[in-house]
Amino acid sequence: MDYFITLEDVLLTSDPKSKIEKFNNFYTKFLNNDFVFNESYTPCTLVEPSYAPFLEIIKPTLLPKIKNFNTDEGKKYLIHTVLHIEYSAIDLALDAALRFKNLPLKYYQDFLEVASDEIRHYLMLEDLLGQLDGKYGDFPVHKNLFEALQDTPTFLRRMAAVPRYLEANGLDQNPKIMQKLKSNNDPFNRKIVKVLETILEEEVDHVSKGDIWYKYACDLEKLPYDSTYLEIIEDVFPGSTKRKMDLNFEARKQAGFSCNELKALSKKTD
């Protein structure tokens, strides 16, 4: 199997069911060492997200806020929102495993494992949505994660901006959503919480993987970890280092963030 050509086909596949089937076939061959790296491969340029053909994409500011978890419609919207994040994260992981060449095999193993986890998260959420007679595409979505992919074409920027910023932000937000769900402790909310707990636990590992390879990228360029990270995320996400962030300190420490980074992001002075 040609690793890059086959993985590119998986990434570009729009239909979720087909994408997942193709990935599973690809991943089985990868785990069985049935692949070759064709170093003449040139990464494709992505101009639109893979989900563009079947989802309505609007500006994030036009999306309603997630507020009401007491109604089925509110639950559906919450699940759909997280589902879209997970589906977008599949493509981010696939692209990371595709776009950057001449790295240690462990790098590709790590990000394909992340993609496999994100697929499992997507399927768990899709099942919950189906239990409410909903489906992916019932609500409009934004393409913020895809735009972050486009804005980070280099290895260093991608590792800083995606695992260590976007996914790390999920470590902060997930517990807040779970707390709101627990405040209305109905049986279906408990199902959602259980899935979100699994996602949170595994996302710590994803951010940790990104942390390892971010630091590897910094070492290649002889750059300091903390200041380089803050410079990159401010460049990719203007204003991100200016506002005070409500952080999940424990999860971020587990994932590799330094005390100096956490102080800078949270604006703590002690």
List the domain count as a whole number.
1
State the end-to-end CA separation: 54 Å
Number of strands: 0
Report the biggest beta sheet as strand number plus sense, adding barrel if it closes.
Answer: none
Globally, the shape reads globular
* The top level CATH class name: Mainly Alpha
Mean pLDDT: 94
Percent of residues in helices comes to: 55-70%
CATH architecture: Up-down Bundle
Structural class: mainly alpha
Task: Please name the CATH topology.
Answer: Ferritin
List the uncertain runs. none
What pattern of helices and strands is seen along the backbone? Answer: HHHHHHHHHH
Question: What percent strand?
Answer: under 5%
Discrete helix count? 10
- Radius of gyration from the alpha-carbon trace, in angstroms: 19 Å
Superfamily (CATH H level) name: Ferritin, core subunit, four-helix bundle
Walkthrough of the structure:
The protein has helices at 3-12, 16-31, 72-99, 105-131, 144-150, 155-183, 187-221, 225-236, 249-254, 259-266. Helices cover 66% and strands 0% of the residues. The mean pLDDT is 94. The radius of gyration is 19 Å and the shape is globular. It has a single domain (67-266), classed as Ferritin, core subunit, four-helix bundle (Ferritin), CATH 1.20.1260.10. With 270 residues, the protein is mainly α. The chain contains ten helices and no strands. It starts with a helix and ends with a helix.
